[in-house]
Structure to design on (556 residues):
């Protein structure tokens, strides 16, 4: 057992001793020893790291767990993951689901395979029929597997597009959707019970099953069914999986659909947990798709497509006004939504409250139901009768019957199908965006995000907004709705909605980072004008004014 340094508080010393006593990982135990030695010699950074890692713990919520790798209850490691698996097993048993199937998948990040095996052993030890994927797979393929295998739950070990030092733990229930309240709180309370005992007391078994090719084969067959046989297929495109796990499945999906193979960015083609060519493995981040854009220019491609590292998100870049540009999540969201409406896909259309209002107008035109949801696919995926849903953070649900979650691979296939169809008509994605603007008006959106060191700054800013909401924005009288009280459409959430005839603003704290986020929208009627460039410029000018006004209101 690791000894503790004299300079540690008694509580911190006990926490370190208790944690290391049940840690099966020699690497994280050594990291604790190294930190203790450094702290004992007066290294203040080592002491601060010990306090941060051991004085609190990662909270299990609707996003499961996500955090930096390392020792301690406030990091992602084998102890924390084992406790989460045991807590989830307890929750499932308490809900009468003993003996059910549980699927476990993982990405290619550091320790993902180890965390997945620990989960499979603990689930099997609790009497569940645990099934683990044979290697790293995209998150939506595992989400598909929840329903395909009739599972009572699913787990994906992934940190999606977080930095390389992070990992995470995402939980699905038997409906194939991510957990929502009160399940998250119930699972969290059972994890808390597990932490009162040694992890070595949790039963384990290696009698879990390792899945074969049935899962990816079934998923690919489902994706291939989305593309009509008569659809045009001529297209030149560049693809990057951003060092993630999407590359192989995308290649197979494209082949299964009879679409042309991608020109892949070789430097980013293979899974690599270091993400060596990008500062941040998120296709929205500046520079992330620069290699893909350079390749697209070289080959005169029709479009660029990128997945994030676990391939549940999809981003595209196209030539607009003579220049390559990454489309916003809202632009791609309404493109895919309008395409589904054109094709006669019936059912409820949905997007999060922080996404563009345009999808609502489109659904109304086609006489299809529409609902706004809270942020996150845990809400979108649960919309009854969902036909299509999206959120502005590059998440798109194309086939909710199979995957009631965001799916970057099926979204990619539908983008290719749409682009090839337009190309066959001598038109482009940019032309379709113009069509939409002419028909529905210009909808410009923008996100303003403020990162802070002290979370109290966010609390104070939200309190200030609620006490003194803006009655005028960009010269327009506003209506203010405090979503903390809920509404006819939405359950209570910590957010404020500000609207006028042509403006929408949503302000909310981030659920995963110390950030305050403002989602801004400005609309402009184009029914009496054909000058889209002027209309878009005017809407962007209004957005800039809203941004300035909101910065003043929030005091940031």
């Amino acid at each position: 057992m690791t000894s503790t340094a004299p300079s540690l508080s008694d509580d911190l010393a006990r926490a370190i001793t208790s944690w290391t006593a049940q840690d099966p990982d020699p690497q994280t135990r050594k990291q604790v020893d190294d930190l203790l030695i450094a702290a004992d010699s007066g290294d203040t950074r080592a002491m601060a790291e010990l306090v941060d890692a051991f004085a609190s713990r990662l909270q299990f919520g609707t996003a499961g767990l996500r955090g930096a790798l390392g020792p301690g209850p406030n990091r992602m490691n084998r102890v924390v993951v084992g406790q989460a698996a045991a807590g989830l097993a307890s929750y499932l048993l308490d809900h009468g689901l003993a003996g059910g199937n549980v699927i476990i998948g993982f990405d290619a990040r550091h320790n993902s395979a180890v965390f997945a095996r620990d989960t499979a052993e603990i689930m099997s030890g609790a009497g569940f029929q645990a099934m683990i994927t044979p290697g790293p797979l995209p998150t939506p393929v595992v989400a598909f597997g929840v329903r395909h295998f009739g599972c009572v739950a699913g787990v994906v070990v992934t940190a999606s597009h977080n930095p390389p030092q992070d990992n995470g733990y995402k939980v699905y229930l038997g409906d194939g959707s991510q957990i929502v309240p009160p399940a998250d709180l119930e699972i969290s309370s059972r994890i808390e019970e597990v932490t009162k005992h040694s992890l070595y007391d949790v039963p384990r078994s290696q009698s879990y099953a390792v899945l074969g090719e049935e899962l990816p084969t079934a998923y690919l067959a489902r994706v291939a069914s989305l593309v009509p046989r008569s659809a045009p297929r001529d297209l030149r495109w560049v693809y990057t999986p951003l060092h993630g796990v999407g590359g192989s499945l995308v290649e197979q999906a494209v082949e299964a659909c009879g679409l042309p193979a991608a020109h892949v960015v070789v430097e980013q083609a293979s899974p690599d947990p270091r993400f060596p060519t990008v500062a941040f493995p998120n296709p929205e981040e500046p520079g992330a798709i620069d290699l893909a854009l350079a390749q697209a220019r070289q080959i005169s491609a029709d479009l660029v497509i990128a997945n994030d590292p676990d391939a549940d998100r999809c981003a595209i870049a196209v030539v607009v006004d003579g220049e390559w540009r990454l489309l916003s999540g809202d632009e791609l969201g309404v493109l895919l939504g309008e395409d589904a409406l054109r094709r006669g896909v019936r059912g409820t259309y949905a997007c999060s409250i922080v996404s563009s209002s345009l999808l609502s107008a489109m659904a109304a035109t086609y006489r299809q139901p529409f609902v706004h949801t809270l942020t996150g696919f845990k809400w979108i995926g649960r919309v009854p009768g969902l036909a299509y849903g999206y959120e502005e953070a590059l998440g798109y649900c194309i086939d909710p019957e199979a995957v009631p979650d965001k799916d970057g691979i099926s979204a990619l296939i539908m983008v290719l199908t749409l682009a090839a169809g337009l190309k066959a008509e001598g038109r482009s994605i940019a032309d379709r965006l113009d069509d939409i603007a002419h028909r529905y008006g210009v909808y410009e959106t923008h996100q303003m995000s403020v990162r802070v060191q002290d979370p109290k700054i966010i609390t104070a800013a939200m309190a200030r907004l609620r006490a003194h909401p803006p009655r005028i924005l960009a010269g327009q009288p506003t209506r203010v709705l405090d979503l903390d009280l809920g509404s006819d459409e939405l359950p209570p959430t910590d957010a404020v909605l500000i609207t006028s005839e042509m403006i929408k603003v949503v302000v909310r704290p981030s659920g995963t980072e110390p950030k305050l986020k403002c989602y801004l929208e400005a609309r402009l009627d184009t029914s009496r004008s054909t000058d889209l460039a002027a209309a878009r410029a005017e809407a962007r000018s209004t957005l800039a004014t809203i941004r300035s006004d909101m910065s003043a209101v929030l005091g940031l």
Observations:
- Residues 59-211 form a domain with the Alpha-D-Glucose-1,6-Bisphosphate; Chain A, domain 3 fold (CATH 3.40.120.10).
- Residues 13 and 52 are 13 Å apart (CA to CA).
- The radius of gyration is 24 Å.
